[in-house]
């Protein structure tokens, strides 16, 4: 039997706890595989009550208990806990979020959970309590023994999958960061992950251009001919189905999206804007290239609406479903 998924709380003052409770309440209609929260038993009960949903919470002492408990109550591992104060982030909440994330990652890497789903955090708050990573992607990668540059962020929704080849950096620094080797390495990781975890035997990759009109024969920049095209040639020689560089203003049009399985973009917003425009309430952040499954809802803490019954649970449910599906494919190998 596949182990349950481990879910970290995220910042307890954000929307994470109420959406996790909502996801458990919809577990049957959404077809979710068993999961357990790492800490926050009283906090999750309070978040469910604030949201107006009936969610029994049961503490468990071992991850192995989660599957049996899951049909009857939301399993919560351990004694980590804190008060529920939606919209009021503080240092204690950040410490709880970090402790939950640390333990959830440890359990997943140890094989006691089939994957990790991370709740939304406020990175600035975590930095105040010693979090030194750019984000949870890099944190989980380190826990799994993977170099940060080999942990690739993919955003996935019902309409689109996108990968930013460079992530958290100033736009002015992107051209210097792009290399043939970087594009080759990350495209190879994406292709392998789509085969293994998403069941695509021959994944189709489309690379966006960096410059307007794909550089227009060098008038608007030469990165397309100097960096992107050679990377594409090398990837094709390695047997990977890849096209491009495509002008980014056209490749996300409805008639174009059916030609590829994932769009690989040169910088953060080039990838995230179309994904969020199309699939904001159902977007999932998936980390590719890890020996473990990691997903997260593709939204932040939303402190401004926490505890007001306004937050949409779609992305949390999608992240749990996707993690369960990917874990099942690995278990079937």
Written overview of the protein:
The protein has 13 helices and 12 strands. It has 333 residues and is α/β, with parallel strands linked by helices. It folds into 2 domains: 185 residues, 3-Layer(aba) Sandwich (Isopropylmalate Dehydrogenase), CATH 3.40.718.10; 138 residues, Isopropylmalate Dehydrogenase. Strands 3-4-2-1-5-12-11-6-7-10-8-9 form a 12-stranded mixed sheet, with helices on both faces. A hairpin with a 4-residue loop joins strand 6 and strand 7. The longest helix has 19 residues.
List the helices and strands and how they pair.
Blueprint: E1 5-8, H1 16-25, H2 27-30, E2 35-38, H3 41-51, E3 57-60, H4 66-69, E4 74-77, H5 91-109, E5 116-118, H6 123-127, H7 136-143, E6 152-156, E7 161-164, H8 174-177, H9 180-198, E8 204-208, H10 223-237, E9 241-246, H11 254-257, E10 262-265, H12 268-279, E11 284-288, E12 294-297, H13 314-331
Parallel strand pairs: 1-2, 1-5, 2-4, 3-4, 5-12, 7-10, 8-9, 8-10
Antiparallel strand pairs: 6-7, 6-11, 11-12
Helix pairs in contact: 1-3, 9-10
Based on helices, strands and strand pairing, what is the structural class?
alpha/beta
Helical fraction: 25-40%
Number of helices: 13
Unreliable parts: none
Task: Name the CATH superfamily assignment of the largest domain.
Answer: Isopropylmalate Dehydrogenase
The biggest beta sheet, please? 12 strands, mixed
Q: Specify the overall morphology.
A: globular
In total, the number of domains comes to 2
CATH topology of the largest domain: Isopropylmalate Dehydrogenase
Q: Distance between the terminal alpha carbons, to the nearest Å?
A: 14 Å
Written as H for each helix and E for each strand, in order along the chain, the element string is EHHEHEHEHEHHEEHHEHEHEHEEH
Number of strands: 12
Radius of gyration: 20 Å
CATH architecture grouping of the largest domain: 3-Layer(aba) Sandwich
Strand % is 15-25%
Q: Mean of residue pLDDT?
A: 95
Walk across the major sheet and give the strand order: 3-4-2-1-5-12-11-6-7-10-8-9
The top-level CATH class of the largest domain is Alpha Beta
